[in-house]
Amino acid sequence: MIGIVIVSHSKQLALGVRELAAQMVHGQVPIAVAAGIEDPENPLGTDPIQVYEAIASVFSDDGVLVLMDLGSALLSAEMAIEFLPEAQQQKVHLCEAPLVEGAIAAVVATAAGRDIHQVMAEAGGALLAKATQLGVVSRPLSVVSSNTPTTNGESPTPEIRLIVSNRLGLHARPAAQFVATAARFQSQILVQNLTRNTELVRGDSINQVTTLGVRQGHELVITATGSDADEALAALQALFANNFGEAARSCCSNKEEPALKTGFPSQATGVGLPNPEGEDNVVLNSPPAFHHKVTPATHGELSGIAASAGIAIAPIIHYQPTHISIKEYHVDDPEAEWQRVQSAIHTARQEIQAVFSQASIQIGDAEAAIFDAQLLFLEDPVLLEAAKERILGHHLNAEAAWQTVVDEVATSYHTLEDSYLQERVDDVVDVGQRVLRLLAGNAPAKVHLDEPAILVATDLTPSDTAGLDPTKVLGICTTSGSATSHSAIIARTLGIPAVLGVDAQVLHLADGTVMALDGESGRAWVEPESHILNLLAAKQSAWQTAQQEALATAHQPAITRDHRQVSVFANIGSISDVQVAVASGAQGVGLLRTEFLYLDRTSAPTEEEQLEVYQAIAQVLDHRPLIIRTLDVGGDKPLPYLRVGLREANPFLGWRGIRFCLDNLDLFKTQLRAILRASVGHQIKIMLPMIATVTEVRAAKVILGEVQAELNQAGIPFDAAMKVGIMVEVPSAVAIADQLAAEVDFFSIGTNDLSQYVMASDRTNPRVANLVDALHPAVLRMVQQTIQAANAAGISVGLCGELAADTLATPILLGLGLDELSVNPQSIAGVKQAIARLSIVKCEAIVASALQQDSAVHVRELISTSVTPPA
Fold this sequence. Notes:
Blueprint: E1 3-8, H1 11-24, E2 31-35, H2 48-58, E3 64-68, H3 73-82, H4 86-89, E4 92-95, H5 99-111, H6 116-124, H7 128-133, E5 159-163, H8 172-183, E6 188-193, E7 201-202, H9 206-210, E8 219-225, H10 229-241, E9 261-262, E10 301-303, E11 305-308, E12 311-318, H11 334-363, H12 365-368, H13 370-377, H14 381-394, H15 398-414, H16 419-422, H17 425-440, E13 453-457, H18 462-466, E14 473-478, H19 486-494, E15 498-500, E16 514-518, E17 523-526, H20 530-554, E18 558-559, E19 565-572, H21 575-583, E20 589-593, H22 607-621, E21 626-629, H23 658-663, H24 665-678, E22 684-688, H25 694-714, E23 724-728, H26 731-735, H27 737-741, E24 746-749, H28 751-758, H29 777-793, E25 796-799, H30 810-816, E26 820-823, H31 828-836, H32 840-850, H33 856-866
């Protein structure tokens, strides 16, 4: 039976609601309460750990419905879900229904045997009866507004009505998918939030759709007028049915707390310090002490919002983005001004794509997808039409026209009641400022630190944060921002401690002033006294002890219950990554993305520069395997100084990966020489990307042989027995895998690219990205075929796509027979734990059934029901 959880700041209120609701169904429905905090002087507040315990106490596979009152209750509930196992998270639903009426409606519907979505709908509409009785509404809420267009004078417009199931509704990513899908059709698509009784808005406008404030449980009506109206509505309905691919995701994905960040070797850092933000400030990481009584600040202490856990002690350095001064004036050639805007947007799109590429390497595709919505912002027809009208209709200059429309969009976000959606204004401002900078001809601002420091700023945009170097930026302290902003999410992913929303006095501190900050408690100290440093040191020590205990198992081999050992390697993109990987228990590096050596510079790296990096990484690995992928640029990874000549209509199908390298022999040979020279005394392997034909492999091997001969002639040592493998990420490579296996020593399956090529869908394009799912049976059959060819040839086969880090997919990957998995360093411990809970026999049975499913959704359901979640 469905469980009900009541979250309130007041324990007495919650207990009263539970008693009333229980009486309605004679105690038949399990109801749990999470309310108040353990503080006799100020008992009002919410605690995520209480909410977690309440959910666990009534958890059922039928689902759990969580009802909340105002303030931090929602954030506490969202974070509580993060503590649950992934398989359980998707069965917990947050509902915006009124606490008393919603609870009564929910328990009655549950007792009647309704499913979770029906119960949510009942709770969400709980005020209708009261409102109707009081005469507040004169029509049923399900009736569409009278201004809905019709296809002709008599026939009604085709429409669908949907209940939104996503935990956070149509936030940035699902809103982008909705708009992108709507934009694929000729029909005019309008959408209305019936729950909030909004006006109809255009379905192809990212801003209008987002400002509907659609949250979980809201009812929408979507209409379509045109020749392909039915197809458009069917496509949109499919998005909702698939939960926009977000079944087990939420906006605030907590990462493990990073290791000590300090600019001074003698100053350690860490115990739970009081949280001066009171009950509405909810800390995002460790469970203990989420809420504390407000206490007077000590000398030099600053109170803020806990946004990214960890301790940092270092000198500060201020970051101030370049101010863009805008003047408004009349232009005589408005067409030329409009062309300037279009040109700036084109360049901005290229820049954002480059940011996406770099972010994918550094923080992973999932978090980098934040920038998908920014790309869609640049295509928003409402925004572009408004800017064009100001320029052509009022002869306004490009800078002033663009700034005006961006300000209007930002204002529309600020006026939303939903605080989470209000925070998406950061992305609007980020991309708006990027275009404005290009129009003004200003150089891009970058955070560059010569020495490790804590960054102090008014605010940081998502683009600013994604470009930070965690080895130099030890902490972030800003005067604005929130824990659920995209910048905060990126900071947590990068492992940079952050305290936001501190007093503006911090902006007046001199560069070089020593600061300590605790990203868990949301506090910072200017020139901290010794007792503060001692407290932080104790906290850090306690955390490190807990981490060491957790990592102890991560450093053990990954062995299934029936004694099959699976290698767990790391995907890395820098020297700092390999240090984290080894510390996290990696048995080697399954993928070194060498693109990082070529980014953020005006020319390609020299042989000596590359040699130094490869040797440094191999040294850290200490004879563990190191697979170096040769340069993979093109498609979504352009490099400004490597001109490709003609602009490609389909860059993912164009001059990229091995194709590019075979046509740039000097570049390719330089990298091969560096890799070969670094191989002496180390277990280094070469991996070729984007192989589509046997001819490409043979051509690359000929070039490798030429380089080996040159080194031999020069008397330069290298490992003559170094193994050569390929990435299997193109469908043609799967089709001829038996032929390719005869040419190489190993395969590594790249499911990120393989998925998009199999499904003919660009994974960076929000219009079709929902189709790209590596658990689709079509993709899994390709993986199976590749493994079978490798086994027949007696070569090893691994998988280094993001699928490897998804512990839900672990049974599938083991059952398919992979020899190794390569994941981001932060996922190593979790993947090893998942392997230890499984048996190969059970996994093979799951695979046999999974390959017969008709969708990725059904594959996921199969896994969830076949594997018992850990307690």
